[in-house]
Model the fold of this input.
Amino acid sequence: MQQLSDQKPGPAARSYPITIEHVTKTYRGGAAAVDDLSFIAEPGRVTGFLGPNGAGKSTTMKILLGLASPTSGQATIGGLAYGELPDPTGTVGASVEADAFHPGRSGRNHLRILADAADRPPERVDEVLELVDLGAAANRRAGAYSLGMKQRLGLAAALLCDPPVLVLDEPGNGLDPQGIRTLRNLLRSRAAQGSTVFVSSHLLAEVEQLADDVVVVNQGRLVAQGSLAELRQSASLVRAASPEALRATLEAAGGIVENGQPNTLVVRGLSLDEIGEHAFRTGIALHELSPHTDSLEDRFFAWTGGAAAGGTDSNT
Amino acid sequence: MNWLRIVRAELRKLTSTKMPLAFLTVFAVIGAATATAVAFGTDMDGSKTFISTAADQQSLIAFAANALVIAGLFGAIAVAREYGHGTVVLTFLTTPRRPRAVLAQIAAAFVAGSVLGLVGAGVSAGSVAAGLAATDYGFMVSAADLTRVLAASTLAGGAGAVLGAGVGALVRNTGGAVTGTIVLLVILPPLAVQMVSEAASWVPSTLANVVSGVDNATGLGAAIAAIGLWALIPAVIGLVAVTRRDVV
Done:
């Protein structure tokens, strides 16, 4: 996977935002797997799709790709439902199940089948196999591939038609550090060239390095959305002589206050100026007031109420 | 998108695993057993009257009823394993209009089943001929009758595979699809005949034998049409089910 980042997406002259509008999916007799979910994944950016197991990520992706129908709402790519795209595989490259291949079929034949159906020449199969560093294993049974090789085969399938939109479910699973870095470079490169890159992952540290934007869902609902930089910096760190008194003041002013280090509060929902003014009015001396940047992991646990991240909610 | 490209992709699916080889192995085993039976088997009285006439030999060669079942299993496994292995996700991503995708699967199953039926009948004829070489009897089936047997098996193989593909699409589970196909083609027909004796003329094995020219329970045209119905009804039900439900 040495040259992946050199690949340029195909018909990127047109941009294809991914739009999820009030999508709800309710299974018979069960709770909503996806509940009035709305967000946009913009072209030219990598959007990370996060949530704990069972949050509705896979269901949302399947609705987006026309594999499942929403109970209400709609999911579009460039304004059209997946099934209405004139050239779906030439527009969207998707990998939603890492082991979606026949274990007795070779990697090359797996891709030849997709190339036949998508009307791509057989030479393209060998190109993408080389791209994902599977050229030497192309004629081996895919069932004998390692997890990382299976992921790369899925990625090769997604890249086969050189699409301007990538929808990938847990693409980093099983990749070694070199593979993860190469994948990251590829996705960032594709986004830099105008592609829409929508990636679910439970590897928060990886998403932190990869994504421009994140969409976080929990129990089927949107709990956070925006640029990763903004979301991580949407708090202020306050160190004060009387933190409990300050806490009461700031909470009364509408702030969300968490305890940090001793005598330190992490405040959300109020700007630095507002915090300073409230402290001044109540006569509380501040020893420090600064922007606070959380790790994505910290933010994730705050958004999801401490649920473990996961990406294998294939049943939701 | 050209539908024939999708059919080509489906045919590549069917031919890029060892499944066809497994079925050909089954034919080889059946052929070997047939040749052995013809060469060394006798009737209850120790004679070999079961191969003494052209009609007897044609009955032995007639493979259409077997082709119906064997190709039915082939079609069922071919389609159901798509769900088991998750490759159906890629199928519906490349062809989001599911009826087109399913029709391509069914068409490919028909082609593959027809080839299986033809090969099976060919192996059967060759086995009988080989077995006869060890007896005092020659190969007496006329070229026209042999052609009819081969054609009948080809048709039955195609129809069986379409039936199996429909069951596979409906059930989505290889074990369940195999069971369902066996129930439809092997278990249900005798039960139906037990309840309604007139049904005997319309069960798949009888119809296959009529088309092969070794039974005259119905007319040829009616038998071909009835075999078509046996295949198409499960296929249509499977297609409708696939179109309406989520891919999970």
Notes: Residues 259 and 265 of chain A are 5 Å apart (CA to CA). Confidence is low (pLDDT under 50) at residues 310-316 of chain A. The longest strand of chain A covers residues 32-41. The interface with chain B takes residues 62, 65-69, 82-83, 85, 88-89, 92, 94, 96-97, 99-106, 109, 112-114, 116-119, 157, 314-315 of chain A (CB under 8 Å).
